[in-house]
Structure prediction request, 440 residues.
Amino acid sequence: MLVLKFGGTSVGKPERMKKIARLVTETPGQKIVVLSALAGTTNALVSIGEHLLGGHAEAAETEIAALEKHYQAFVQELYQSDGFLAIGQEIVSRFFVFMRLLAAGQFDDKSYRELLAQGELISTELFYQYLQEQKITSRLLPALHFMSIDENEEPELEKISQRLKPLIASLKNIDIVITQGYICRNHRNEIDNLKRGGSDYTASLIGAALKADEIQIWTDIDGMHNNDPRVVDKTIPISELTFDEASELAYFGAKILHPSTIVPAQKYGIPVRLKNTMDEKAPGTLISNKGTAGTCKAVAAKDGITAIKIKSSRMLMAYGFLRRVFEVFEHYRTPIDMISTSEVAVSLTIDNTRHLPEIKQELEKFGSIEVDTNQTIVCIVGHKIEGQQGILERVFGALSQVPIRMVSVGGSANNISLLIPSDYKKQALTALNKQLFGLP
Ligand code: ADP
Ligand code: ASP
Ligand code: MG
Prediction:
């Protein structure tokens, strides 16, 4: 059993959807095909939803109309016969009637999440009908029948597995089973999602739930690169990564993978392969238990970080101080990414600032608080990189012109993290590209 996930750009054009149809039919055996929404759709739905939450119905309708036009043009090109074109047009009309019904109602957070789900629901229906037109046997399995998160927004892997196994067993003669990425039900049984980029996570949750042989993430680039291709000029693909390395890169900003993708795959040792839909012959990246120690594999950067410094003379020699600090973050369900301490101060970083005002207020009981926004974590990753001779000297040498706010080494053997002001990100990633990989 394989799980194949195709991202937004991979399904974003009619000819690409046709190519995916070929790729999945050429892959032997039973597979679950996880699809994202067409490129740009979720962004458009976010914007429509925000207009509606803000009471700007007209602006929302303008965007709904533009999106509908896009889909009508899409189906014109996707289907060859008049019969299937009519089916495609009917699907599009039905979805847009429903979106307008949502927009006209009491638009709240629940309707917003329902709106966000429409992108994956429509892409999978259009793809299923395309396979029907091509006389390729497949089934559409609704993700909302099995994918769920608990009250802490954590996927319920056991339950997902218990629901999915009999569903798949009932389709044992069907080689292509299509489902939606990203969407799920929450503990109130409402429609919800696995956060932006969540289709990767869907694929790896399904892979873990079914103990698949491999999880393949098909996207618009030939695997994980050594640096962020959106920021630096020259990057190169990495052929192999360990689960730990890939996990750190995904968590610290390598957008090719949703931050949590590796967790379920690693739990059951299921290899994850990253492949390029536009260049299927390219080897891509294989993520597994195998790894070579002491080499620096890649650099990633995570923006939108806030640094909090708590200065307290009372901290001096006081046990229990850090526990009380951490309890504040725990209470507000705010994860901490980096931490560094001295005798009189502790600095830490967060990326979820939803409860920052309350957190700040509570921390003020311990001492004086400084908050710095617009920070970026730069993360240098490699299996047992810590042990690599001279690595810190090379990193700091490369970053001699960059103000470094925090450093974290030794938290994991596989990563060195630095906090810098976001304005310096390009400079830092470019300097590291040159120093660590000899690339411009
Ligand atoms: P999809 O829509 O298929 O999920 P994404 O846009 O989410 O695709 O992820 C692929 C993009 O991730 C690439 O186009 C690339 O710009 C970006 N990216 C960021 N960092 C990396 C990296 N280290 N290696 C490869 N791609 C990266
Ligand atoms: N469509 C969703 C998004 O754009 C999920 C995904 O593409 O992975 O965030
Ligand atoms: Mg993605």
Remarks:
- The chain has a mean pLDDT of 95.
- Residues 16 and 409 are 43 Å apart (CA to CA).
